Amino acid sequence: MLPLRTYLLALVFLLPLGAFAAPEDGGPVYELRTYTAAPGRLPDVLARFRDHTIAIFKRHGMVSVGYWVPTDAKDGAGGKLVYLLQHPSREAAKKNWAEFRVDPEWQAVSKASEANGKIVVKTESVFLAPTDFSMLK
Q1: From CA 63, how far away is CA 84, in angstroms rounded?
Q2: CB 132, CB 23: distance < 8 Å
Q3: Closest CA to 136 of 59, 49, 40, 27
Q4: For the chain, N or C: smaller number of CB within 10 Å?
Q5: Residue 48: burial class (beta carbons within 10 Å; 0-12, 13-18, 19+)
Q6: pTM of the model
Q7: 8 A C-beta contact, residue 93 and residue 31
Q8: pLDDT tens sequence across 110-133
């Protein structure tokens, strides 16, 4: 079985482009993010999200749709966090991230959580537009 990310990317590239066009009304976009933790640091990544990051995202207009960890070793079990954010638009996403990065609380939380070294070693991001038959719109 292939990783979820592989299926999502295949859908983006293999289905008709019209099904994935940006919503005509400027509707929401979704951002699928995957964080690879430094060895042994996934609990620190999860704690930072649980205790701080999600609330900071909310203040900056990012809607947390869901957070997951892989269950199989081949997909990064024990070392990855996969999550989905909703933004009002692609432009809003850019603005949201810019404001998030300079947020004083985020900067303090990030610095404190990385006092013993980086906890995230790789970040991946894919923007997705809902299809006309998607449950999320």
Answers
A1: 9
A2: no
A3: 27
A4: N
A5: buried
A6: 0.80
A7: yes
A8: 999 999 999 999 999 999 988 889
